[in-house]
Amino acid sequence: MKAVTVVPLVKDSLVLRDMPKPSPKRGQVLLSPIEVGVCGTDKDIIEGKYGAPPPGEEYLILGHEAVAEVVELGDGVDNVGVGDIVVPTVRRPTTCTLPVTELDYCPRGTYAEHGIWYLHGFAAEFAVTDSQYLVRVPKEAIDVAVLTEPLSIVEKGIDLAIRLGKARFESWSPRRVLIMGAGPIGMLALMVMRLRGFTDVTVTATRPYDSLKAKLVKEIGATYVNTNVDQISGEFDIVIEATGSTNAAYEALRHLGADGVAVLLGIYLDSKNVNIGPLLDDWRKNKLIIGATNASIRAFEMGVSDLVKAKFEFGGWVRKLITKEVTLDEYEYAYNWGHEDIKSVIQIRSL
C-alpha cells in the first residue's frame, strides 16, 4: 500500500513509500482513510524536530488528523461495524493508567500517538487502530470530519475556559472574545465561540482586509483586525491564542482583562525570550491562563457534534476552511502552504 513516510529526526526525509498492508489484531479495526489533514506538527516532524517510528521500524507513517471508513474488524470488536465512517483519536496509552476519557493528561513517556510517536499514522491507503478510540461520524458531517482532530483541541480549551472561569465565581459572565490567529485553530475557535452564543468576537491576523480569512471571519458575524495595519483595542474576557508564536502569546495576555481567561492552543518552539515582568501583576487581577495541545475522546465527540451544528448554522462556511486538497500521489503539495491557506488535506480516496 502507498503511505506518506518519514525517517524521524532526519530532516526532509518525506517520501511516498510502499508499505505492508496492516492486519487488525484483537480489539482493532482496519481503516481505509478518506481524508487526512496536515498541520504544523507534521511540518515539525518533517524538519526532524521530533517524532519516533514504531519499535523496531525505521519509518513513520505520518497523519494524525483523519476521517476513515471501517473495512475490517478484529476479534472482539463490537462498538463499530464495517462501513462505519469514523474519526480516530490520536493518543494510545502504553504505561499510562488513566481512563480513556482522560488520556490527554498522561505524562510524557507513558503513551504513543498515531503519526507522531511510536505508532503509524493515517496518511496511507490502510491503517489499523484500537476500536475503543473511534468516534462515529454522521453522514451530514463526513465532508468536514477531517477537521475533528484540530477542533478537539479547541473544544477542550474552550470548555476548560468556561468551566474553570465559572468555577472561580458563578457570576462570571464573559462577553468579549479575542482570537489571535486565523489559521485552522483560530477559525475553528471562532466557529465554536459563535455556536456558544458569543457575539462580540474579534479575530486577528496579518492578512489584508479583502483576504479569504478576513471574509470568512466577517461571514459568520465576527470582527477582523489586520494587525499589520491596525491595533487591537481594549481588553477581553476570553483570549484564545492560536498562532503558536511566543510573541503573539505575550500580546494575547496583554489584552486579557481583569477576571479574564486566556487559552493558549499553540506549541511554542520559536524559543523567543519575553519579559514576563509586566504580567506578574495579573494574578492580583484574578486572571486565569490555561493551555491545550491534545484532547480526550470526549472532546472529539464534542467536535463532531459541533461540526453538525455548524453546517446547519453556517451552511457551507465550514468546508471553506479546507483551502487545499490534493491526492495521495500529490502529497508533497499538502505540506507546503501559504499565508492564504487555512487547512491542507490529502484525499486518500473518495467516498
From TrEMBL:
It holds the Pfam family ADH_N. The keyword Lyase does not apply. Its cofactor is Zn(2+). Its EC number is 1.1.1.47. It comes from the Archaea. It is an enzyme of class 1 (oxidoreductase). Substrate binds at T41, E113, E149, N294. NADP(+) binds at A182, G183, P184, I185, L265, G266, I267, A292, T293, N294. One of its GO terms (molecular function) is glucose 1-dehydrogenase (NADP+) activity. The keyword RNA-binding does not apply. It catalyses: D-glucose + NADP(+) = D-glucono-1,5-lactone + NADPH + H(+); D-glucose + NAD(+) = D-glucono-1,5-lactone + NADH + H(+). Residues 143-348 form the Glucose dehydrogenase C-terminal domain. GO terms for biological process: non-phosphorylated glucose catabolic process. Residues 26-139 form the Alcohol dehydrogenase-like N-terminal domain. PANTHER family: GLUCOSE 1-DEHYDROGENASE, ZINC-TYPE ALCOHOL DEHYDROGENASE-LIKE PROTEIN C1198.01-RELATED. Catalyzes the NAD(P)(+)-dependent oxidation of D-glucose to D-gluconate via gluconolactone. Can utilize both NAD(+) and NADP(+) as electron acceptor. Is involved in the degradation of glucose through a non-phosphorylative variant of the Entner-Doudoroff pathway. Belongs to the zinc-containing alcohol dehydrogenase family. Glucose 1-dehydrogenase subfamily. This is Glucose 1-dehydrogenase. It comes from Vulcanisaeta distributa (strain DSM 14429 / JCM 11212 / NBRC 100878 / IC-017).
